[in-house]
Specification:
This protein has 186 residues and is mainly β. It has 3 domains: 2-62, SH3 type barrels (Roll), CATH 2.30.30; 65-124, OB fold (Dihydrolipoamide Acetyltransferase, E2P), CATH 2.40.50; 128-185, OB fold (Dihydrolipoamide Acetyltransferase, E2P), CATH 2.40.50. It is built from 1 helix and 16 strands. The strands form 3 sheets. It has a 6-stranded antiparallel beta sheet, with no helix packed on it. The protein is flat and about 65 Å long.
Length: 186
């Protein structure tokens, strides 16, 4: 059993038969009354977030989690198709599970898939990725007189980001996947 004083962000717990991931938590000790833990939990099934308060010391069933390196093969509309590199088995994971992370992944690249109780529950991508710029308008000489600027660019995965004016089509850029911001040329 896992107690409220062992909570960590990212830990999975089971509450009333439903599995949740702890997004954030806060231990509160009011001047009067017993201590409690205020949490924000993400439901594993549909991704909805709820606020829930627990008494300090309450116990929950810990949920077994495991990460596995898999290769992203292709997108089939509502599903992302992944392949296990050890036994070459394919796994289809729904859009609601992989979420926004797949926009930073190009086919045939490796991703970390999080399994909770042997069910895929999320995809973890690196904090920064390198991709080629497939489409952007050319930078015009003289545009940088006011200290620089940015322009929209489409990367090879189809995601649009703001890049500096000196970046051209075909260049490889490094982008932060958490914020979606340009970091540097690769």
């Amino acid at each position: 059993m896992i107690s409220t004083n062992q909570f960590k962000n990212g830990t999975h717990i089971e509450v009333d038969g439903t599995i949740y991931r702890i997004v954030e938590f806060q231990h509160v000790k009011p001047g009067k009354g017993g201590a409690f833990v205020r949490t924000k939990l993400r439901k594993l099934d549909d991704g909805s977030v709820i606020d829930k308060t627990f008494r300090a010391g309450e116990k929950f069933r810990p949920v077994r989690t495991e990460t596995k390196r898999m290769q992203y093969l292709y997108d089939s509309g509502e599903m992302a198709v992944l392949m296990d590199n050890s036994d070459y088995s394919q796994l289809e994971v729904g859009r609601e599970v992989v979420g926004d992370a797949m926009r930073w992944v190009v086919p045939n690249s490796e991703v970390e898939v999080l399994f909770v109780d042997e069910r895929p529950s999320g995809v973890q991508v690196p904090s920064a990725v390198e991709m080629a710029v497939t489409e952007t308008s050319p930078g015009v000489k003289g545009d940088t007189a006011s200290g620089g600027g940015t322009k929209p660019a489409t990367l090879e995965s189809g995601v649009r980001v703001e890049v500096p004016l000196f970046v051209n089509q075909g260049d490889r850029v490094r982008v932060d996947t958490r914020s979606g911001e340009y970091v540097s040329r690769a």
